[in-house]
Amino acid sequence: MKPLLSTFMLIQNLIVILMTNNKLHATHAHDLLGINGGGFSCESWLLGVETNNLRGWKTVPRGCESFVRQYMIGKRYGDDSAVVVGEAEKYARGLKLGGDGKEVWVFDVDDTALSNLPFYAHRGFGARAYNKSEFDVWVNKSRRTALPQSLRLYKTLLSLGIKVVFLSTDFKHDRDIISANLRKVGYITWEKLLVRIHGVKLSTISFKSSQRKELQQEGYKIVGNIGDQWSDILGTPEGDRTFKLPNPMYYVN
Ligand SMILES: [Mg+2]
Known about the structure:
It comes from Dioscorea alata (Purple yam). It is a single chain. The protein is 48% helix and 13% strand. The chain is an alpha/beta fold. The protein has two domains: 3-69, no CATH class; 75-244, 3-Layer(aba) Sandwich (Rossmann fold), CATH 3.40.50.1000. Strands 5-4-1-6-7 form a five-stranded parallel beta sheet, sandwiched between helices. The longest helix has 31 residues, at 3-33. It is globular. Mean pLDDT is 87; it is low at 14-32 and 34-38. Residues 108, 110-112, 227-229 line the site of magnesium ion.
């Protein structure tokens, strides 16, 4: 066989394999989400997630597990996070501060300040359901690392004179664990670390909004708010400007 012809056939075969693989992903995701008519790619699923058009999903679509794995451990997750943080820093540097030290920036904790990626890596990057106690045991061992882009934003904000408030939906008994974990990875100081009190049953949006409202009532000005879930940044008062970090591994109502 002539070299040119064999190269052509090799490329043709590769195209067929890629098309089949893509169709397989689309079919699985399509079936799982129960959307009628026309397949879609895992990229489209990701866009739906990040734009908050797809809500209430429990696990990553079966056909998108390898896509999410590649997204998370490849360059893309870091790059997408860096775009968000770059914009947040640009915005923060342009702020005219009042000089009274009352400007604060609210940070979510899970997969914003601290990364749970190693935990989800062992559970199919969100494709497999897990028991809450499994997660608690893992967190108790303080294995969380900093999300590098968030730590960079944190340092930039402190250098500008903007204080940081950590706001977590974790409960009060986890406060010391979170605090130790934050310090261990480089978040050395903060204005407040707000957690939930046991027995208070509120949705994430209601709880986080109420905490931000209290901050305002205490005289703080929330200049920024960053989280990996839409429930971190929706609800009044949301802050002067909100930033959504990517997270295709799970959805919090
Ligand atoms: Mg989070």
